[in-house]
Model the fold of this input.
Amino acid sequence: MDFAGSSTAARPLPNAATTTSVKIVVAGGFGVGKTTFVGSVSEIAPLTTEAVMTSASEPLDDLTQTPGKTTTTVAMDFGRVSLDSDLLLYLFGTPGQYRFWFMWDDLVRGAIGAVVLADTRRLSDCFPAIDYFEERRLPFIVAVNRFDGMLTHAVDDVRDALTVGANVPVVTCDARERLSTKQTLISLVEHAMAMRRAGTAY
Amino acid sequence: MSTSEEEVPGALVRPYAVTRGRTRPRYQFAIEALVSTTDFGSNSHQRGTPEVQTIIELCREIRSVAEIAAHLRVPLGVARVLVGDMADDGLVRVHQPGHEDGQPDLTLLERVLSGLRRL
Done:
């Protein structure tokens, strides 16, 4: 492991109680660039973690007692950004398929909001995520990932195709570019604050 | 977590073997909940299973439950069980994120926004 051999023992221990964490969910269809988006701004190489679930979409429970049940392993990539000496932001890229819905409740609980990454060639891949966030009243924005610098649809066309409300920001981004990712995250946080002030979130 | 576990978990051990079959953690930690090693934990690094020792070493710097799971290559549920047990034993300190059941409040969002703009 990467910490082996490092002599951290002499340093004073940090105290988790004085540090706060927040999270943002990055959703979208397979291959749309979620991990690229996370990686472009993360201070650590994106990590992968797994949740093991039963196919019956039950919460983590009793897996060992029911060996007959099929289990599903769902991988999520995530990254971390230090926003201040005592404030950490985690970005979780999530599988966008319907069948992984069961793990989203865990992901969105307490989240600032979500960035739905969209590929104009496969806009319908965004529908499940958008439906879910609308239902949960989680603040979200749509970020059209500009592959190879080409934006083939105007932003308004994307908005029409996705039938998202006029209050939902639709922005363009280049998931490979740190500054672009940063700006997209800023747009989301501003939107979350606006929803919060208007009393329409949660 | 008992310190007298006989089997040494390795790659061939199914994930929940390290939690002795338990899949339900005592606490429902958020995946972004932060964990840090306590002084007591730091002085106890020779004790416990390899997983416990690894978490003690990892959390000399603050890590989230998700990071612990990723570094240990165990599912999130397993990491939650391990961290919960270690918190009960005083080996680590866990800080749930800055919200209760709802969203972060406006003050926290302001701080996030400022932090992002400084990046």
